[in-house]
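Memo to structure team: turn this sequence into structure tokens by end of day. - J.P.
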Amino acid sequence: MYAFTHKNAKIGVFRLTLPSLKQTAWLEIRQLLDKYELPYQENKTEGVMTFPNGTTIIFRALDDMRKIRSLNMDYIYVEQAEEIDKDIFMELDSRIRGQATQEDYGQLLLVVTPEMQSHWIYKRFHKIEDEKACVVHFHYTENPFVDENYIQMAEDRKKFDYDTYARLTLGKWGLVGDIIYQNWDIKESSRGFEYYTGGSDFGFNNPSCFLLVGWLDNEAYVIDEVYERNRINY
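Reply from structure team:
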């Protein structure tokens, strides 16, 4: 849409490696243009698409920062942005300064499959408020073209690896592995409890958590809990 509504715009489509880019975003864009019979010319050797209004899309790998220096872009799209490091992002961000950007607007779009919360993208866009940035979350249930086989595969992940299920199916950023219990279920004790313990994890920006736990036959039951942000310890 940006290509056809902005004359002489410079658009960049990037991924960490060129083979991966050719198999994903580059191929998908070409297929969409052909499907809707939209006019364009393509130089596959140079990795450039040209449109009748003078707009161009260049396809580049991000495995060498020298490949993107000196570029003046209006719109940048990064496929699987979790693959790149923060320095490459900052270099790309400084490239949004083309003619169409000055006349209308420019944009840097990162498409991400969530990784761990230690990843720089999570820290940069989910932990820090930025009025110039927007985080948009999509779930497979919002895609009307997903077939039943895909849905079954996506839900089956929960049986084998909950962290993978949370990231790839639910689109949530993962915690550090092996510190959160995941194989829990919901049920009540029918015979009371042998003894009780309490648990706490203090926080302020991150939520504080307080648990009352009952034990029966060496099984822990969470009886009550508090999970709230901005609580002081007293």
